[in-house]
Design goal:
This protein is α+β, with helices and mostly antiparallel strands. 26% of the residues lie in helices and 24% in strands. It is built from ten helices and 16 strands. It has a five-stranded antiparallel β-sheet with strand order 1-2-3-6-16, with helices on one face. It has a five-stranded mixed β-sheet with strand order 7-15-12-13-14, with helices on one face. The longest helix is centred in the N-terminal third of the chain and has 14 residues, at 15-28.
Length: 322
């Protein structure tokens, strides 16, 4: 086993040796090595390689043995989160211990041996296929074309006909997408043909939290100074969303509770979001973003069909260590 592909030793080797290691991985997996980059966030950091293949950016994430899951606060809720929880419990007349309520939503504590991976840096949209305006599939739907004409004269940025077609206004004109129904098995098979996979729930929890023992990678409570999806204030309109910025592994991960990230399992399973149920249900910022915790219980989906509005994927390559 190449110990240098695991976090403790990987973080200790010199950048010249790290560079050579990354170049060998690029050659092995037929990727373009873009260079080393240091990612430093929330008390964890990693200087690692960034790669490109087939229009995707990947980052090398070293393996590690970590504790995952959650059963109690390491530091304790900050005052803002505690006040929000207390208010909700009173408002909803809930008879429960807030700590117990959180614990029930979390996966059980366990040790996990995580292997090294090359990981897609961004979440990828599913089901929606970009097409040109003269695609013959469009002309068979005169009702779509009428909707497009109305949209073109409107001041809207985009128009979506549920699981059918979407049109977006761009700097160069318009981009159209057609919806293709896909199920979980088709997704896995399609990725496998490309030599790709999805992270398991344990691998996902590591990519998201890096083995942190707090509820979120930055601490036990919500950081209300962050610019967050669905809770924007007008003065923050042009600012990047804090949780969407690259984490300590260089990944944009678990930043929007509406976006469920598909993981590899025996059945269709997601992490990193609940499709926005908690936010839609009026549960506020802290409980609304709780599904983005690395320790939140993976959710088994009843239907095998993917939902292109809520389900997203992150391709990975597991690096062989022999």
């Amino acid at each position: 086993m190449n110990e240098k592909l695991f976090r403790t030793q990987f973080n200790q080797i010199e950048n010249t040796e790290k560079q050579a290691l990354m170049e060998s991985l690029a050659a092995r997996y037929d990727m373009t090595f873009l260079g080393l980059h240091t990612f430093d966030r929330w008390g964890q950091s990693c200087t690692t390689g960034i790669f490109e293949k087939d229009g995707r950016e990947f980052v090398f994430v070293p393996g590690d043995t970590v504790t995952l899951g959650w059963e109690q606060f390491t530091v304790g809720l900050n005052q803002d989160s505690q006040e929000e929880l207390d208010y909700l419990i009173q408002e909803w007349e809930m008879e429960c211990d807030p700590n117990e309520m959180i614990r029930e939503s979390m996966a059980s504590v366990r040790q996990a041996a995580i292997g090294p991976m090359l990981v897609g840096r961004e979440l990828e949209e599913l089901c929606w296929e970009p097409v040109k305006m003269d695609d013959p599939r469009l002309t068979t739907h005169p009702d779509w074309l009428k909707e497009f004409r109305d949209f073109a004269w409107s001041d809207l940025d985009s128009l979506t006909l549920h699981q059918s077609v979407r049109i977006e206004r761009t700097e160069k004109g318009f981009q159209i997408y057609i919806y293709n129904r896909t199920d979980y098995d088709e997704l896995l098979a399609g990725l496998e043909k490309q030599g790709l996979s999805l992270p398991t729930a344990d691998e996902w929890a590591y990519l998201c939290g890096g083995g942190c023992r707090t509820l979120f990678p930055w601490g036990d409570g919500m950081d209300y100074s962050m610019h967050l999806h669905h809770f924007e204030s007008p003065e923050d309109e042009d600012k990047p969303f804090d949780m969407e910025e690259p984490n300590f592994f260089g990944l944009s991960i678990a930043y929007d509770p509406y976006m469920r990230e598909i993981v590899k399992a025996d059945v269709f399973t997601t992490c990193g979001g609940d499709g926005g149920r908690s936010i839609c249900g009026g549960l506020g910022i802290f409980l609304g973003f709780l599904p983005c915790s690395p320790h939140y219980k993976p959710e088994v989906q009843v239907d095998k069909q993917l939902n292109g509005d809520y389900d997203f994927c992150r391709p990975i390559i597991r690096v062989e260590t022999d």
